[in-house]
Design goal:
about 70 residues, mainly alpha, about 90% helix
Length: about 70
């Protein structure tokens, strides 16, 4: 009986150690995902700014075009 309990405790210790290792892996992966998300959001903000700037410049150029004379 004691040997069986000891065997079960060793098994559980192994499972707990495996879970702790997996938690560390997931924390590392989560950090990489968070960094990738932050970079993607930064790039998105830059692209949005560039798009808005382009729209503004095009609108200014359109305003400078000669107007058609009404008949």
């Amino acid at each position: 009986m004691l040997a069986a309990m000891e065997h079960e405790l060793e098994y559980l210790e192994g499972r707990v150690a495996a879970l702790i290792a997996r938690i560390h892996e997931l924390e590392t992966q989560n950090s990489r995902f968070a960094a990738a998300l932050a970079e993607a959001m930064r790039e998105n903000a830059e692209m949005k700014f560039g798009l808005e700037e382009t729209r503004r410049r095009v609108a200014l150029l359109v305003e400078r075009l000669p107007k058609e004379e009404e008949a």
